[in-house]
Fold these 3 entries.
Entry 1:
Amino acid sequence: RLALALLVLPGGLGKPTARQERARPGAAQHEDRQGFQYDHEAFLGKEEARSFDQLSPEESRERLGKIVDRIDDNEDGYLTTEELKNWIKRVQKRYIYENVAKVWKDYDLNKDDKIAWEEYKQATYGYYL
């Protein structure tokens, strides 16, 4: 449902997915208990998803169309499950690297590009000690 919800936009401006890649009746379905925000973050990344919250539906549709073009690696006008998986992996990897850089900055208290045990303890448990 994620791919379909993001790719089939109101007004018919979405790109179709490859027919053989569509979900089949009885196949495992996407669990939607966490809501669309979870899907947006997985698909776009946390910061990008947040920026979409501020857009009008028309602006959102236009930006999603550009993202779909970036996901379509072989530029055939269709998105496959593999292309979607690769995209989500890239987005998640970027999020992890950005998060590690932020945490590193927060933990490396003396800014020597090393995190000593004392720095780690202070950054993690400092208010308890």
Entry 2:
Amino acid sequence: MEILISDHTTFKPIDNDPTITEENRLIRKLRQLKERGFISESEYNFCYPCGSQPARLYGLPKVHKDGVPLRPILSASGTFNFGIAQLLVRKLSHLTKHSTVIEDTFKFLDELHSLQINMNDHKLVSFDVTSLFTMVPLP
């Protein structure tokens, strides 16, 4: 993990913790949304951050790989924006209900097995991508 976070093209050190500042900024925005009727009182209370902490980074070993590299996990539970993220997932969940969206690996396998094709004429390819999310250029 030390090697991962020491890559300054992906991560950069900061001098102070912005958690409380960002928590206060979100509280002001939530108040505006509630006053304008965009969110209800219960949604406001659900999203209201209190005692927020920075996200925690840890690594889970990829035991199936040579050298057992770590898969970085950024845990956002307890962060200032965790509640509003959960609310957005609930409000936008209808977007994931589509015939082209597959819920999990088991449903994916069921879909594959139900195809009426000659498997000798087709190949399934899976690419092993390293650091996908940290290597996507933001611009």
Entry 3:
Amino acid sequence: MASSSGNDDDLTIPRAAINKMIKETLPNVRVANDARELVVNCCTEFIHLISSEANEICNRSEKKTISPEHVIQALESLGFGSYISEVKEVLQECKTVALKRRKASSRLENLGIPEEELLRQQQELFAQVSE
């Protein structure tokens, strides 16, 4: 797949991901292969556009890491302000999932019991249940 910059042909969204999104969004519609290819190219171009703008915003604010706020500002400056509320919802969901993962991980670490011992205890409990 050729892209506008010419040297990043491998930087595209996986076709399987696009096919899944199309099937979930339009379950009763057949989509031609060239239309699917066009969707892949449009998605890739959109991501390049937003990331480039977010990178410029990041550089202007003298930061080295693009943050969600830079992406939101990029959406606004490129005229995609209507997406911002949904983007913020997804961002909040991601933060919630990440927090739950960290809490679950730290609970095990805070027990002070080695993983091997926890596995042994788990196997004992399974054995008791099956008796």
